[in-house]
Amino acid sequence: MSQSPKILSVEELPTSDAKWITLKKIHWSDPDGKQRTWECAERTTRGSSGIDAVAILAVLRSETNAFPPSTVIIEQFRPPVGKFVVELPAGLIDGGESPETTAIRELEEETGFKGTKILESSPLLVCDPGMTTANMKLVAVDVPFPDKLEMSAQKLEPGEYITARIVELPKLAAELREYEKKGFVVDARLSHYASGYEMAERLRQTKL
């Protein structure tokens, strides 16, 4: 019988015991020439590409217009915040992979959907530049269907517990607001995209 995930305890982690991240102290000079210091976290898994990860915007569409343009979002428990988080599918870039190859692979693993081509790949993006050196790319992937939407089986790795959900793009922002009411936390990248989509549509319908 499955159980709800929960935080059992939290303790200090010596840097020497950390497997995936390390802490750095940065010495820098501000515009007035004053020397300052900054503390940040850094991934130890970054490969030769210089890019840590990708977030994936899957564009699900019907070639017969059997359903509105949609996307897939995922729900998973994130121990650092102690809550379920609503996110875009995402993943770390394996050695020798391009961000675009990672996007196709991770989308199928986490959601079961097979992307056919890359619609757009963003410039290098930073995630929380005041806290970490982590960076990423946002990759939009085309997922066409001949007619009606068909769900596919996920290909999760052991220890991954991810729920995939399909949301119509025009309804995404409203759906994320409902998640907040249910106690979920929404990832900032997903929220920003949904808010921008909603605002663009509102401006399109409004005479300025």
TrEMBL record:
Domain (Nudix hydrolase) ranges: 49-190
UniProt record similarity statement: Belongs to the Nudix hydrolase family.
Keywords from the named record: Hydrolase
UniProt keyword annotation of Hydrolase present: yes
Domain of life: Eukaryota
Entry's Gene Ontology molecular function annotations: ADP-ribose diphosphatase activity
Pfam family, one: NUDIX
Protein name: Nudix hydrolase domain-containing protein
Parts forming coiled coils: none
The keyword Transport belongs to this UniProt entry's keyword annotation: no
